[in-house]
Amino acid sequence: MVTMCSYDIADDKRRAKVADILLSHGCLRLHYSVYAGEINGPTYRSLVKALRSEIGQGKIESVRVWRLSVDAFRNNIHLGDGQDIELIFMNRGMTVIF
Each residue of 4-15: pLDDT tens digit? Predict the structure, then answer.
């Protein structure tokens, strides 16, 4: 499974903390506020718990988390500049098969 996360956070400190949480749990930055990684089991539960703790309930900030099969994740269309997702993962030694 691929875990994909995005956020909409106005506060710089909180945004940096959320980014650090995502990176420390094995996510790679795809765009400024979009991350993805092969995260399963205990690591996934730890990620969600850490995000919940940082964001809390009833706040203006928003974090979205998707769990996608590798097939669903790789079935994307890349438009515009920037690296393809496949290259980002391959360059970081991730094991997602495209």
Answer: 999 999 889 989
End-to-end, the C-alpha distance of the chain in Å comes to 13
Tokens representing 26 are 């094995």
Whether the CB-CB separation of 35 and 95 falls below 8 Å is answered with no
The one-letter amino acid code at 24 reads S
E-strand ranges in the chain read 2-8, 28-31, 34-37, 62-68
- Enter the tokens of residue 35: 């991350």
pLDDT band at 74 (very low <50, low <70, confident <90, very high): confident
The dihedral built from the CA positions of residue 53, 59, 63 and 67, taken in this order, carries a sign that is positive
CA distance 26 to 29: 10
Question: Cβ-count burial of 15 within 10 angstroms (0-12 exposed, 13-18 middle, 19+ buried)?
Answer: middle
